[in-house]
Design a protein that fits this description.
- The structure is a single chain.
- About 10% of the residues lie in helices and about 35% in strands.
- The chain contains two helices and 21 strands.
- It is globular.
């Protein structure tokens, strides 16, 4: 009995000791001032959009606050072509039906006079970028692939493949965007450059078609087979470099990695050298194709 009582008393003292060592520590962390965030794109075949928001504090649970009431305009070869309208359904999103043309130069001007902190109020410009040519996607096909085929596949099955060719002349950068049943693959960065393979054609000779999805899963009874959409975009070298740096920062996590660096986009404040917004205004041209899986 003495031994049993001793065990109970020991546990009680440990519990009391643990409670007595519990302190609430209030961290006094300086909040960084809000910064402008810009996300936008102009293309040759889709609606032009620009989204404006501002960063929030690290401990804030709210999403980035949208910025309404700005004046956003698009310039082509130095001339203002269209003033974007703010969406009535989504605050901070500005839209225009204006489309770009390959070979022309584009930039946006964002004028913010209200509904934002003082450091964000002012005029902001994107760096001028030229809309680059984009090859057509010649075709898409369905192929049975495994480890012994060309292209190879780690898991055997039916895959979607894409045939297209690069233009002659180095300096082309492409981004591949995929969607399955109209849902875009999130956080996907699939880029192709002709730095070492100028003028190549995927799907002829040494270079097999590009395997872009698979293996497909057979549909359940009564369901439609999967439908895959593909968009090939030409992007500028500057945006390609920006995404490579951003992707490196996102993958940082090892104790031996260098601390993340500030990734600057192409939006700067007028008359304030060195003042940049987060985000990027992209100038792209697009080519689209699709395929429905045939079980």
């Amino acid at each position: 009995m003495m031994t049993k009582h001793f065990k109970y008393l020991a546990l009680l003292f440990i519990a009391i000791g643990m409670q007595s060592c519990t302190d609430v520590v209030d961290l006094d962390v300086d909040a960084a001032p809000p910064e402008l965030v810009v996300d936008g794109v102009i293309s040759n075949d889709r609606e032009l959009y620009v989204k404006l928001s501002q960063t929030s504090g690290f401990f804030d649970n709210n999403a980035f606050e949208k910025i309404s009431g700005a004046r956003v305009s698009i310039f082509e070869n130095g001339q203002e072509m269209s003033v974007l309208d703010e969406s009535p359904n989504e605050a901070g999103t500005y839209l225009s039906n204006f489309k770009g043309s390959i070979g022309n130069e584009y930039r946006i001007r964002v004028e913010i006079s209200t509904n934002a902190p003082d450091q964000i109020i002012g005029t902001w410009w994107s760096t001028a970028d030229t809309m680059k040519r984009v090859p057509n996607i010649d075709s898409m096909g369905q192929m049975s692939l495994d480890r012994n085929t060309n292209p190879q596949a780690f898991f055997p099955g039916e895959y979607a493949v894409m045939y297209f060719g690069d233009f002659e002349g180095k300096g082309d950068y492409y981004r591949l965007i995929r969607s399955l049943n109209d849902s875009v693959f999130a956080q996907e960065n699939f880029f192709i450059t002709d730095e070492n393979l100028d003028g190549f054609y995927f799907g002829n000779g040494l270079f097999p078609p590009v395997s872009i999805y698979g293996p497909f899963e057979d549909p359940e009874a009564g369901e439609e087979p999967d439908s895959l959409g593909v968009r090939l975009e030409s992007v500028t070298e500057a945006f390609f470099d920006y995404m490579q740096v951003l992707n490196t920062q996102v993958q940082t996590g090892s104790p031996f990695d260098a601390p993340p660096a500030l990734v600057l986009g192409n939006i700067h404040k007028e008359n304030e050298e060195g003042t940049y917004a987060f985000g990027y205004f992209r100038v792209v041209a697009g080519s689209n194709a699709g395929l429905r899986y045939e079980p």
